[in-house]
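HUMAN: Mind sharing a backbone?

ASSISTANT:
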Amino acid sequence: MLTIMAHDASAGSSRYELTKLIKLALPLVAAQLAQMGMGVVDTIMAGRVGALELAGVALGGAVLWPTLMLVSGVVMATTPMIAQLNGAGKVSEVGEVTRQGLWIALVLGSLLAMALQNAGLVYRGLGIEADIVAVTTGYLDAVSWGIVPVLGYFALRYLCEGLSWTKPAMLIAGGGLLLKIPLNYWFVFGGWGIEPMGAEGCGWATALIMLLEFLAMATVVQFSRIRKVGLLQRFSRPDTAQIGTLFKLGLPIGMATFVEFGFFSVVTLLIGRLGPETVAAHQIINNLSGLVFMVPLGLGMATSIRVGFNVGAGDLAAARKTGWLAMATSAGFAIVSIIVLLIFGTTLISLYTEQQQVVGIASGLLGIVACFLIFDGVQVNAMGALRGFKDTAVPFFIAFGCYWLFGFPIAWTLGFGFFTDLDYGIHGYWVGLALGLVAASFVLALRFHKISLVAVRPA
């Protein structure tokens, strides 16, 4: 009895909340690193084929990932809803929420797949070289076949995570990465009856992994403790009221993610004018910074779950404490990452390519990347904490303003060369990216302070 009382007394303390947060976050961080690792595999193998193939993967990803994050963000509305239902002891309502999320995944995923298959119009309209466009569209046509399965995977993954069970995502994503490496090598370089496909091979390998991840997560849901929610034990027609609720909560989540990823992606497309070597260098740096970002991103997902659980349980002080602990933890990790990048950055870049021109351009961007890592981690965890409070609309407008009304004009002005004295090329673009993230971190943290303080101390 004394042990139980001591444990209960610690609930809500900083140490208790941080322990809970880290326990949730570690599998999510591992899952995000594995997902990002698949992109690293694409980048390294395409880079070994040549700068043209690497540029094709980079420009394909510039359209693929923002749009996929937009749609998956709508489906992600199930996570805070399920977390709050779990905290409030209403697990019986979870299955229906997830079934409606699956309907959203099916419809929006089908529309996105068709859009990706016709993305060549975007690249040609931007004046990108025809040979790069051909490689890029081949990659997107292939990967489009995995869009519906991967959104189904996300819907089932968010179910598990909303119930504070994050290990399945880690195990499935880790297994996907292990399969991705030999599949990529086979499809990219050819062999055993398959002709070398280059960047297009990256797309087919990715689509196949997406399908396998969905099947694996469906198996977990059907034959584990998640079965108790009755997700697959009954069929539900689309419920316009429930879908409307999910859209109201999830569309701002998707749009907020979209404006951030879109910010980076439009800059990538603009850099496409500077030639395949510069695009390749940009892709490598984007990949390295993205790998670092996966840790605060996974922590931000855990923050959303833990904050949502505490809100559902009525412990608003613990919800507020969790948000600040997440931001501080992310900043500490970023400091370590900055040191590693500044010391070993050029060596890491050399793993991606042997072309010294590409290595030189990429190495020149390391200092700018180091400057924004802390702010990038803070903003994604502030965003995650706000989602736990179901505050998604205002954070979207904050993200839009910071990235597109502040950071993007700076990036365009400094990078595009409108003014002779301010023509900094790729470095100018990255300065704009960095300043957008700095602004977002400050404003989102301020928003969390306001929302969580009002919740704890209502007027």
Q: What stands out?
A: The two ends are 38 Å apart (CA to CA). Residues 13-456 form one domain. The first helix runs from residue 2 to 10. Confidence is low (pLDDT under 50) at residues 1-9.
